[in-house]
Amino acid sequence: MLRVGRPHGLFGFGVADTHGHAVLTTASPGRFVHDAKLAIACALEADLAAPSVSAIRDTWHAENVIGYVHRQDKKHQSDLDPLREGTSLHALLGLHPDGVWIAERVRKLAPRLQRRDLLDQLGVDSLDEAVHLDTLADAAAGAACVATLEGRCAEVVRARLAAVHAALEHPAPAVAKALGVTDRAVRKLRLQAPEPAMVRAVRLQMGLRAALARTARVDFLDVNSDR
Predict the structure, then answer these.
(1) Is the CB of residue 38 less than 8 Å from the CB of residue 21?
(2) Which comes out higher in pLDDT, residue 50 or 192?
């Protein structure tokens, strides 16, 4: 969505179970729909039905629509995407640094939308950097928008480098075990310069996983409380 949406004015999206929503600043959404259909067919082996198009009336409407598309998974009670990776929230909150341009658009087109609004749509009270080796590999994959850290493609190499530097306070053998690589590979990566925004994104991704785990524990205790 980010890749095909950037040239077509995309500034928000959310995918639910069998459908999705995209928010655009264009008078010709057909080109975006065409490119999105091809991209989704390639990535998911799924086809798209003909879309419906509605006009955004004003700034207030734009702000509300962004929140609406971000909450699709909750709205339809599918709970297929607890991390909200199928939305523009990750790009807006620094969890996916390659999408920073979408945050610039939202600031311009929906200026009253606040960070606290986005956190509420994400389902957490706060989002802070953290380091947890048990989620390091998954967090790095999430920051780079790849399924795993297996392989040697450019995105994986970039994410693995950021992961190593996100966990500098931990011994190399522990980091190597968390990432499924050798101690030597970790020490070698520590000598290379990472992208600061990607390192921060990996730490935020770990923080997100920890925050959602805390929320899940609180909900569990609330439901089963004797009080």
Answers:
(1) no
(2) 192
DSSP state of 11: E
Task: Give the angle 175-164-173 at the CA atoms, nearest 5°.
Answer: 25
- Give which of 110, 127, 124, 151 is closest to 201, Cα–Cα: 127
Alpha-carbon Rg for the chain in angstroms: 19
Amino acid identity of residue 184, one-letter, is R
Q: Residue 157: pLDDT above 80?
A: yes
pTM of the full structure: 0.90
pLDDT in tens, 103-124: 999 999 999 999 999 999 999 9
**DSSP H or E run through 155:** helix 154-166
Packed helices 154-166 and 196-223: angle between N→C axes, nearest 10 degrees: 70
Report helix, strand or coil for 35: helix
Structure tokens at 71: 């909450």
